[in-house]
Amino acid sequence: MMAVKSLVSMPVLNLETEKQRWNTIYKVLSEPKPDIKSTSRKAVWKKNKSVLWYHPASEKKFKTPLFLVYSLLNKAYILDISEEGSVVGNLTKMGYDVYLLDWGSPGLEDKDLTLDNYLIDYLEVAVKRALRHSGAKDISLVGYCIGGMLSAMLTSLTDLPIKNLVLAAVPIDYSNAIVPNKWVKALQNGTLNFDRFADAYEVIPSEFLYAIFMALQGFNIGPTINLVTRAHDQKYVDKWRNMDKWMKDAVTFSGAAFKQMMNELYKDNKLVKGEMEIGGQKVDLTKIKCSTLVITSTRDELVLESQSLPIMDLISSEDKTYQHVEAGHVSLCLTGQFAFAIDPWLSARSREVD
Amino acid sequence: MTENNPLNSIKQVSEMWEKGLNGLLFQTLDNNPLIQITKVGIEANSRYIEMLKRNRHLMASYMNLPTKNDVANAVKQTVQAEEKIDILEEQIWNLQDSFAQATEEQNKMLAEIIEYTKHLHFEWQKATQELTKLSEMQNEIETMKKLLQIKKEEPVLSGK
Fold this sequence. Notes:
The structure holds two protein chains of two kinds. By secondary structure, chain A is of the alpha/beta class. Chain A contains 15 helices and 14 strands. Chain B has a domain at about 15-65. At the A-B interface, strand 2, helix 3, helix 5, helix 6 and helix 8 of A face helix 1, helix 2 and helix 3 of B.
């Protein structure tokens, strides 16, 4: 092994490691994106572009299955990004049967899909299907980001037996956001309005959503520096490549739902005020009575803690827990840490196998 | 990350720079003229897309070509068919559940009938046994009657 030791307090330079590092970086830059290997799964129900995946537990310990709902604005496979270390992979190892709803990426034919459609025609039906497929008496609903908001809305509207509700990085209060104050105000007073834009495009292009996510992160050289720093660690590089693929694999979004989000949530903040209507019914979060866990993360770069916290006061659940974990918005899912964060709470509230 | 990683210091410096630059960017972006420019940009872009769409439709209709909208409308029919199949499937579930419930209730009723028949059978057997006993008693009474009659017919000794 060749090594050059510094005279002052310079770190040791290992030529073998350096060779491996720059070789890996060259490969990452030149090779195609990796294939994502998911946890063992079966499609239980399909509708339009949506698929309900069933991931059976490795060794079933709980009768109450989990239903994962991810954001509409990103692809759901971040939760199942690898067989080892993904959220779904960890949960199945812990003994839960997991159902994951993949919303799919809408096409022009889906331009009129609203949040009402996503909730009633997709999410509620999918939960019904999962209940039927599992044969369980009740189910735990786990929502992430916008998926958490939809899960909370569904729980307040439906008669389905939802035993536990977990909401992570969930935006409920839109009176503030991660963007500068003047921009929030411009959205609220209608100076910035995306109606014409949404009508013109009909379906919001994935490039636009990708650009928004990139803009929200500002200067984001951290991931690239991390790759260079740890390029000799193959396990880290594999994870990094998966994350990189997911970040750039943006989805399209229905124009009608985009308009509804911009006007009813960002502009009028109707959800937190109890004025939002879904399918002609008022969404009243006080109707949530099941056990609820709300999780926020310390380094969340997309959803502020103050956007999630109001739900703790709005719901009527007697059994409600708030957890603030050390993670970022994406890293909480990417590292599979999310599974460990919810397991102690969920296992105590799920029916065990006899 | 190993302790001897020569890039550790670069990472630390980059983190500091990133944080600083993001703070600066946040402050710089927080101004109304930029919002106005964005607004104008969005409007201009929307108008441009609308114009493109109009021209695309015009060209397609002149050339008698199907547009993406036509394809989307055809796909909508498929989605509707999917929804109908889902509804049918749910109705079949309901029927299955109703049948299962009806069969369960039928089984319950049959079990009750069987129980009742068993009870009847038991009662019948009891009655038969009692009847046999009664017949025996009747026979005994008959025998006793006969014996009594014989006693009556016995000659009475009388002195002459």
